[in-house]
Amino acid sequence: MIEPIVKRVGGIDVHKGIVVVTVLKEDDEGGIGKETKEYRTYWKELREMAKWLKKEEVELVVMESTGVYWKCGDLSRFLCLKSGIEHLHYFIPR
What we know:
This protein is α/β, with parallel strands linked by helices. It has one domain: Nucleotidyltransferase, domain 5 (2-Layer Sandwich). Helices cover 23% and strands 37% of the residues. It has a five-stranded mixed beta sheet with strand order 3-2-1-4-5, covered by helices on one side. Helix 1 packs across helix 2 (75-83).
């Protein structure tokens, strides 16, 4: 069995007009809960997304984008500052 390295992880799929965010949380019994939300790519909604990730106590986020949308307004730095996430990784398919 694979041992988890974090208890709460987020995955972000960045599109031109929306950001799809999924949070996986391990409960006390070792089960995994999953919740997915969509946000439009306006700063107001991105702030709401950051607040949600902070409320969910996400420790690690992996962000994926097939285009250049993840660079818009330096989304990565914004997420780290607004949500308190210390570990943000990118997956950029080629």
